Fold:
Amino acid sequence: MTTTVEQNVALVRRAYQCVQSRDLDTAEKPLTENFIANVPGTAEPLRGRENWRMGSEIMLDAFPDLTIDVRDIFGVGDKVTVLVAFQATHLGAFQQFEATGRTVACRGVEVYRCEGDRIAEEWVAPDLLHLIQQIAPTPAGH
Structure:
């Protein structure tokens, strides 16, 4: 079965909507069994749906009111690119930082590769530096 660019874009858009509504079970279903996540800071790609789910749970635990604003989404061939902005309140531990209660915003670019009617791979490039700057302790005197 071949899918069109429009079907791939719709597939990725639905996955974002499921994450936004905290329905990770449904968001995970279109991922291939051997899903590959290319994540900044890792030497090798992460493999398997469980790694995607763990990353999503970490984000939602740290930022439970996470809102996702898909600014643009478009596809070419088997790839779908998403320009996305996130907003949330830092209410749980993230990286080495305990909850601050601060409202944060972060932007990112994400690319997905589809196989048939499934999502097989992702490349995520969030602006983690900007996010960490928002939750890091403020130096004394500032």
Q: What stands out?
A: The two ends are 59 Å apart (CA to CA). The longest strand covers residues 103-115. The chain has a mean pLDDT of 93.
